[in-house]
Amino acid sequence: MKAVEPSEDAPFHKEDVLGALGRSLDAQFIELRRAMLSLANERERNLLAKFQSLSRWSRTYRRCPKCGTPLRMRISKSAAGCPSCSRIFYPTFSPVAITLVADPTDSFALLIRHKASPGGVYTAVAGFAQSGETLEECVRREIAEEVGIPAYGVVSLNRTQPWPMPDSSLMCAYYAVADMSHKIDACVVELESARWFSREEVAAALQRTLDDPSFKGLSKDVEDRQKLQYIAPHGAIAHYMIKAWVERLISATKHTQSRKGKLEASDDGKTSNHNYKIDIEFRNVENKITDKFLEHKSAELTGEEPSKQLGTRFGIELGEAVSH
User: Fold this and answer.
1) Closest CA to 210 of 230, 228, 224, 236
2) Domains in the chain and their CATH numbers?
3) What stretch or stretches form a coiled coil here (predicted)?
4) pTM over 0.70
5) 200 vs 208: CA distance, rounded Å
6) Cα gap 278→177, rounded to integer Å
7) How confident is the model over 260-317, as pLDDT tens digits?
8) How far apart are CA 115 and CA 168, in angstroms?
């Protein structure tokens, strides 16, 4: 729904009209972001994201990009067809990698606070994937860009969330490891703070967020802006990720990458620890040897000389690193 902006000399205001309409429905209109963050039901949040995304797309996508003919929108707004060139267009969305970064001991988490966020509210590192880039590469790049440190041991948490702001996005949850010895160099354009916090500090902020989801107790003191007071609200995927880390449901030693590329929980501590050791072996390789390549080598390692030379070039022995 989009309210028409009344003229400046109109005898009423948009807020008055929305307020009256809301009261007639025994409800109220609230900001989209606030609704997404406060709705308890995940399906309701996803439906709201779908409604907003399709409504915005149908308002802006009016003409065929190829021939300029006005498009015929489906009633569902899920697609639009061109009567001239018979092409069908579908709503687009942007994949976003959001990552819970922990230290090798899994005792500390690296959280950030954006400039536009309330002081004292921290979340996970996130960023849009670029064309020709895998989500795993996006994870490492965004961590490097936002906090200035390399990351390794990237694994998918197999959880996503539709997010309608600023445009249609799909948040994809990841876990990664970074060494605390690296100096944090936060991007001053986007961030106001990026810090390592202990599990106890994060757990306290999580409990505070659960007890006070509206952030009524948030300190507005300038000195408290950099302190970890709250984490992202429960409507954000970052809340789930941080909560899962606090409760030790996700960690570098709880998952192992299968040969089919799916993230699987492992009850075998040796297997998981060995996989974690492999991640440490590769931490300086970064994007030069991709996760896709490693997956292929672990499944079909043949000892071919070119591949072995590639691994040796970066100071590792592929045959030893990926054998199970």
Assistant:
1) 230
2) 28-89 (no CATH), 94-246 (3.90.79.10), 255-321 (no CATH)
3) none
4) yes
5) 12
6) 12
7) 333 333 333 333 333 333 343 333 333 443 344 444 444 444 444 443 333 333 333 3
8) 22
